[in-house]
Amino acid sequence: MVNKKTKYTxxxxxxxxKLVTEQGxxxxxxxxxxxxxxxxxxxxxxxxxxxTSPGKEKPILSAEQxxxxxxxxxxxRLKLEREILKKAAAFFANEPN
Length: 97
Hints:
single chain; 97 residues; mainly alpha; 4 helices; 0% strand
């Protein structure tokens, strides 16, 4: 008998974790209702908390972590834009009429 590994999508894993974190299910109940093993559910919960080992997939991000990541990217972009505007202002201020 061949033991075939089932691949779960990142979205499925995220929703499974939400059952525990937001809906109040226990890990055992969530695993049973989704038809996955407790070991998978436990690993997904650990990954969602950021406890992944190097070389594994990115941990499942909470809404706050996703927002923080997005805000950091936006902040970096805005800082670059500000620097460009400072240089442009300095250029035009020194330009003879």
